[in-house]
Amino acid sequence: MSAQDNSPAIDTSSIFNATIDLHTNNGVIKSENDKRNYRYLKLENQLGVLLISDPSTEKSAAALDINVGANQNPVNRAGLAHFLEHMLFLGTEKYPQAGEYQEFISQHGGKFNAYTAAENTNYFFEIDNDQLDVALDRFAQFFISPLFNPEYVERERKAVHSEYLAKLKDDGRRERDVYRELINPDHPSSKFSVGNLITLADREGHPVREDMVAFYRQYYSSHLMNLVIMGRYSLDDLEARARQYFSAIPQRDINISSSYASLFAEQSLPASVEIKPEKELRQLTFNFPIPNPEQFYQKKPYAYIAHLLGHEGEGSLLSLLKRLGWADAIYASTGFQSRNDALFQLTIQLTPQGVRARNQIVSLVFYCLGQIETRGLYAWRYGELQQLGDLEFRFLEKSAPMQTVSVLAQSMKTYAPKDILRGPYLYGAYDERLIKKALSYLNSKNLLLVLMAPEAEPYRISTLYSVPFSVRASIPELLDLKPAVRKELFLPEKNVFIPKRLIVKSGSLLEEELTLDPQPQLILANKNMRAWFAQDQQFMQPRALVNFRIKSPLVAANADGAAQAQLFAALLADQMNEFSYSARLAGIDHSIVANTRGYEISVFGYSSRQGLLLNKLMEGIRVSRFKEERFNLLKEDLLRSWRNQNKNLPYQVLANQVTVLQSEPAWSSTQLIDALENKTFEQFHQFVVRQLIDAKIDALFYGNYFRAEALKLAVLVEHELLNRQAGRSLPPAKILLLPKGSEKPWLYTHSLTHDDSVVELFIMNPSVSVEDAAHMMLARQLLQPAFYHQLRTEKQLGYITAAIASPIAALEGTLFVVQSPTANENILIHEIDLFLEEALPDLDEDFVNNQRSLIKKLREPARSLKEQGQRYWSSIVDHGEHFSRRLDLAEAVARITPDSFHDYFRAVFMDKNRRLWLTSELHEKNENFFHVDDLLLHKQQMQMVVSP
Questions:
Q1: How many CA atoms lie within 13 A of 269 on its CB side?
Q2: Can you tell me the distance from the alpha carbon of 544 to that of 276, in angstroms, rounded to the nearest whole number?
Q3: Number of C-alpha atoms within 13 angstroms, CB side, residue 768?
Q4: Is residue 28 helix, strand or coil?
Q5: What distance in Å separates the CA atoms of residue 618 and residue 722, rounded to the nearest whole number?
Q6: What is the distance, to the nearest Å, from the Cα of residue 440 to the centroid of all Cα atoms in its chain?
Q7: Residues 6+ apart with CB under 8 A from 276
């Protein structure tokens, strides 16, 4: 009998509750494929607790979510909940040192964070398994005996203000600021949530610290909290720890009302709003106030409506809008959620023509809503969502421990204990009456229509973010559609991509092939193509990852090729969308991404239907029949996105310049704009026809395939795409090293339209060797908490302060980042310089702990099939098929001694002349730097390393 005959087949055609052999694990329903054990309980203080025992986890984690957020801020203290979140990290009675928690987590391989939302605040961390007890004790003290040390109050006020200033030009924040001014002033969502120096100022008789402590003592009550702990311990041992560390959290006499004033005042809807954005954005959002949808999580009526209204296949609203040249994308979901209510939001990404046609688009949207009510309510449609939810829950892949606990802690307030895990994927019984009730809220009298576009005609300015906007107490008149237009709009057919039977393959189609190497094996190698294959033998999922890298001499030749490749990728994705959207819904996703030497194509999902999608992709690449109207529209979209890049968060803009400066081929957004702006449709067509001449392909097939199947697909790809040769060679990819023995450091200045100052320092390794990479990674881990504590917490230079990994292909690098609303660039350069000068003596203190922690991290196995596939792919495209690189890095870290580390640190981090500085602006040139004014000249002065 063949291996295929032994493989388990899974029928996926029945409804959710009948499909899954639901395992009730201590009151929590889990999938049959989930090997973790769960227990839900409540402590005596009414703290809700979810325990997760996972003997295979490489990190332990915990999260505590408080059912209190910005909506509970006192009327005269905007931002207080957010301010409290900041202050909670800065010492407790048992562990009084500010920064001690952060340092402890970091030196034991961990991470931590927190966020304040409208109705909850979420704190979370992960750490090495053997440090869970100490970490839980430190973590629990936040909610038992925080110090709220007065000496840090002013610093954190400035940090909150810095966070506010950093996003003054963020269009998401700016749009929300306009909404805030339009919402009923009696509703808590009308209040400012972030906070600034004014809202958090000391007032006569009301110092902000006293108000914050009062807020903490009023609301931080155990019965409003949910805790999740994940670790290798048994459930009984985890429960003992939960009781030991968290039973002392006080339960206070507080109940929070779920009844708010209506989201919009009576008679204020319908209304139309126009907002002028910072970026060149154009979107039309339909906002319908609805009751809080969480009460319907078992049946999800709004998800059903969003599925049909936001569909992107043939006959959809988006399909018609694209044909008319009015829109590029559509999104439907619920948002702006509070305890009492929410918004159902349909957002349409418009073209300039779509802005002019927005009144007609309103009529189209309401026609589609009418069609859903009259023709779209069928049990079989709901059954498809049940099947898709079933599949996703059944084969849910592990996420990072910190993400897992944070999401579940937040979910515990929404779902019944048994549904904490399956709640997001659960579609219970089809309830037509409930869907009709939900649809009744989506009417023209209950609409806030918001246009965000440069063409907006504002007459008001919002208070906090200075956003130009206007309001009109009406919406466009609803018009009857022409019969020809109505014919183009119809609801989706049955989804052919939903798999009927799922087979997890093992072994080989050939009986004599008894063993398979777990690492990828080269199954095809010739002058045009290399293909690797590895069958999953660990995760036992009916999924596969298929990656292709197409390397084209025409694309790699110059900025013209790179820019046109970006446009080709956008046009191909656009052309594929109607076909591929159903595949995406059914768990088979794909991406087409252009790079400076060609394309990365990735397909991930259920392997049984991947062939359909791959064939369509190959046909699209080979034939490439695009319409001139779509060429013009997507070309403008691409140019607009490049122009908008300079309006991203300032530190992100600068960080993106590192690759442009230190690698080849690499192009700035300005170079790409210049290359594409005047390209005609005919010129682009000639590029498309020629781009595969002399192309080469690397491929990886990993997961639920047999070797013979992977080889057949690889040969098909080669036959379809690589059949023309002209003898043109592919330019090599190069990493450009800062030269040794330089007389001065290098300085690149990038002008930004933002009031904050930004300075970044890039420290790059002198080689791509494993030894240098290991030293760089250990140095960064040692420096990160100290850099943050000194420059952000102690010196208050800026909310955005970090030391982050910044590799260029196989070369490790570290980027030091400070974005400041108060200090200028010269001061920031001095402070970063000073930090590195003084850092080395303090690094010995935590050397051993950090070394052990990094070794553990590098030895961690992948958590999911997708993550393992991505590791294999990175080994192929970045590290010359060095599949054991992570383990080799771990061994290299283990060989590091304090002496070798000191030598490395002095040579790499303390050599001031081998540094690349990036700044937002300098008022005058400084003779202490080589200024990068000419990109080509700068690259010629670098030392070259050829990359795979």
A1: 22
A2: 44
A3: 20
A4: strand
A5: 11
A6: 34
A7: 452, 453, 454, 456, 458, 467, 468, 469
Which amino acid is located at 857 in the chain? Answer: K
Answer for the pair 349, 653: CB distance below 8 angstroms, yes or no. Answer: no
Q: What pLDDT, on the 0 to 100 scale, is given for residue 923?
A: 60
| Strands of the 943-947 sheet, one edge to the other | 663-664, 733-737, 943-947
> What's 932's DSSP letter?
-
Amino acid letter for position 546: V
Q: How many residues does the chain have?
A: 948
DSSP code at position 232: S
| 8 A C-beta contact, residue 409 and residue 63 | yes
14 pLDDT band (50/70/90 cuts)?
A: very low
> Please, which residues have CB within 8 angstroms of residue 603's CB and are 6 or more apart in sequence?
545, 546, 547, 588, 589, 590, 610, 613, 614, 617
DSSP 340: S
Residue among 429, 422, 436, 413 nearest 294 (CA): 413
The token pair that represents 487 in the structure block: 């014919």
Q: How far apart are the C-alpha atoms of 483 and 487, rounded to whole Å? A: 6
Report how far apart, in Å, the C-alpha atoms of 301 and of each of 87, 341, 429, 631 are.
Answer: 40, 15, 11, 38
Mean pLDDT of the chain: 92
**For the residues 50-65, what does the mean pLDDT come to?**
96
Q: 601: helix, coil or strand?
A: strand
Task: Return the DSSP state at 862.
Answer: P
Contacts of 607 (CB under 8 A, 6+ apart): 505, 542, 543, 544, 703, 704, 705
Helix spans in 324-441 (H):
352-356, 358-375, 379-394, 401-411, 432-440
Task: Say what percent of the chain tops pLDDT 70.
Answer: 96
CA nearest neighbour of 369 among 317, 315, 293: 317
Query: CA–CA separation, 44 vs 793, rounded Å?
Result: 37
- Phi then psi dihedrals of residue 438, to 5 deg: -65, -40
With beta carbons less than 8 A apart as the criterion, state whether 894 and 855 touch.
yes
Threshold 0.85, pTM exceeds? yes
Distance CA(720)–CA(616), nearest Å, equals 11
Rg (CA), the chain: 29
- Kindly report which listed range (3-17, 289-303, 443-457) carries the lowest average pLDDT score: 3-17
Q: Which residues contact 112 (CB under 8 A, 6 or more apart)?
A: 101, 102, 105, 123, 124, 125, 126, 402
The rounded distance, in Å, linking the Cα atoms of 329 and 665 is 31
How far apart are alpha carbons 393 and 606 in whole angstroms? 14
Reference 264, options 339, 177, 182, 346; nearest CA is 182
CA distance 144 to 136: 12
- Cα separation, 635 vs 687, in Å, equals 14
Give the three-class secondary structure for 128.
Answer: strand
Determine the Cα–Cα distance for residues 582 and 39; give it in Å rounded to an integer: 37
174 HSE (CA, 13 A, CB side): 22
Amino acid present at 579: F
Region of 99 (left: φ > 0; alpha: ψ -120 to 50; beta: rest) is left
Question: Which ranges in 142-194 belong to alpha helices (H)?
Answer: 153-166, 171-182
How much is the pLDDT for 512?
39
